[in-house]
Specification:
The chain has three helices and seven strands, in the order H-H-E-E-E-E-E-E-E-H. By secondary structure, it is an alpha+beta fold. 30% of the residues are buried.
Length: 149
């Protein structure tokens, strides 16, 4: 059953909030964030309205950051494009095709997600602690089919 919509207030009156937007915001808030309005505003438009987001990892801080998104049905590497362009999906693979995730802390470390076939999907994460949490939880998700409790 989808969660209840937020209460109507001065900023939400007359707006409908999709399950994808709510679950994306919840997953994004688990990270130490930097100011990038595009991460909050533009990326939810790339998701299917009823899609549930499980994990999110923002990339290196900047005006147009990348973001890794794990949903129940697919894994995305998306990018905030800017004020005049829309966000875009750089790479996308079905969730069943993901075989592993790897992150080793260090200077210029990259998060690496391995698909069953093809080249790895990589991104430089914004924060080491967020990347380590994402790698741990995503590895658990791949192994067991559910997030750690």
């Amino acid at each position: 059953m989808p969660p209840d919509p937020p209460p109507a207030g001065p900023y939400t009156r007359g707006m409908t909030v999709s399950r994808a937007a709510m679950s994306y915001a919840t997953a994004l808030n688990r990270n130490e964030l930097f100011e990038s309005p595009g991460l909050r505003r533009d990326i939810p438009a790339l998701l299917h309205p009823e899609e549930g987001v499980l994990l999110v990892l923002p990339g290196v801080a900047g005006d147009f950051p990348d973001v890794m998104i794990a949903t129940a049905s697919r894994f995305l590497l998306a990018s905030v494009a800017g004020p005049l362009k829309k966000a875009k999906v750089k790479r996308e693979i079905p969730a069943a095709e993901v075989t592993g995730v790897q992150y080793r802390a260090g200077v210029f470390s990259r998060m690496r997600v391995s698909p069953a076939a093809g080249r790895d999907i990589t991104m430089m994460p914004h924060r080491k602690a967020d990347a380590e949490r994402f790698a741990h939880e995503f590895a658990h998700l791949i192994r067991t089919g559910s997030l750690p409790s």
